[in-house]
Structures are given as C-alpha cells and as structure tokens.
Design a protein that fits this description.
By secondary structure, the protein is mainly α. The protein has a two-stranded antiparallel sheet. A hairpin with a 2-residue loop joins strand 1 and strand 2. Helix 2 runs antiparallel to helix 4.
C-alpha cells in the first residue's frame, strides 16, 4: 500500500518504493511504523499524517485485494514471482538470460 501511495500513477516511483521496502525488510520487522515513515519520507517527503491516511485507505486496500483475487482466480497465479511472456505463464525466479530467451523465441 505504501508503494502505491508514494507513486500514485508513476510506475517508476512505485518500483523505487518497492525496492526500498525490500531492502529494509529487516528494519520493517524490527520497527515497522518508523521504517515505513522513513521510506515514505525518503521516497516522497510523506508526512506521518499522510502515512496514516495511506494505512487507512480502504478503497486502496479493496483495489489491492481485487487485484490479488483476479490474479489468483482468473490468471491462476499462485507463486511469486510469476511472469507472463508471450502468453506463457512462468513461475519462479529466472535469470535475465532465461527471460530474454523466452521473450526472443516468440
């Protein structure tokens, strides 16, 4: 949710925020709220009030849940990561070379 609040409609900001969240996993487990606030401030000058509003955004939570349900029920995604390349579902971690080969064979 934080990454979506930070990014709005900017995909680059979204992925930058997700990257920051992954890098801070240990801190997130030890001190969740302060770490989320720190990442929010670093990524978009987010205030504590804005972070709290993001946490309580029911419409955003519903959207995320709807996306999750669609992926699981309609697309049959049940693993992370899952990629779709040329109509083929690929599950699990793959190297750049493996993904590149799948893209370029089609």
């Amino acid at each position: 949710m934080l990454a979506r609040c930070i990014a709005g409609t900017d995909a680059g900001k979204y992925f930058d925020a997700v990257d920051a969240l992954f890098k801070a996993q240990e801190q997130l487990m030890a001190n969740t709220k302060d770490t989320l606030l720190q990442i929010g401030r670093q990524q978009s000058a987010m205030s504590e009030e804005a972070l709290e509003a993001c946490e309580k955004d029911q419409a955003l939570l519903d959207k995320i849940k709807d996306d999750e349900n669609f992926a699981f029920e309609k697309l049959k995604v049940d693993a992370t990561p899952t990629f779709f390349v040329n109509g083929e579902m690929l599950k699990g971690a793959m190297s750049f070379e493996e993904i590149d080969a799948k893209i370029n064979r089609g």
